[in-house]
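look at this record:
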Amino acid sequence: MKKRYLPIVFGLFLLFVWTYTTRNGGLMPTPTETVKAMISLLDKGYSNISFWNHFGISMYRLFMAMILAILIGVPLGLISGYFENIRLMIEPFINFYKPLPPLSYYVLLIMFLSINEASKIMLLFLAGFAPIYVACTQAVLSVNTKYIRHAKSLGASDFYIFKTIILPASLPQIMTGIRTAIAVAYTTLASAEMIAATSGLGWIVMDAYNYLKTDVVIAIIFVMGITGIILDKTLKYIDDKYIFWKGKV
């Protein structure tokens, strides 16, 4: 059997176990009930809001936060990696909040930014910013110093070295940091929507759970899982296609 079929075989096995264990009813829905719930969500939406509006607002929160995290985290991380004084100034603050669970400071964000979209986007931004900043900083620090020394000996400026040596050599780790950041932010998004939201995929899960609509809960969990896979595969495709020198410098 070809290895690419192994996930399919294991998936069919899990589907059989799921079907067998739910055949006598109970709180756990059957696969058929879950599919029907998904069809109903696509057709009628949830809580008088279309499914695609719920999905869209979740993706809006995620992408807005990640765009900000990339636009700020990548240049700041690269500069911090290249200039030691800047790194020594910023890094202690990153190390302070990085290990904190994002939801632990969500209350503070709500106090400052209210419960609207700004607080959610800022929460996701902070969740994604740290992995990107750390990856960029470490990427610069891991660049082979002999390339930099040779360039300086030939009279290259700091900007030229940064543009032609440091940035290309750092891109593989930067992409890894971005993939990690999106995974962390996506997890945080679901949790934030469960706590303080009236729309979004995470909110549907919590609201459906409160009313024991377990078929809806499982359906949305599948949506979130598949969306996460698509996001990661897309980034991996971009990484493999456009950063083809990965592992060669």
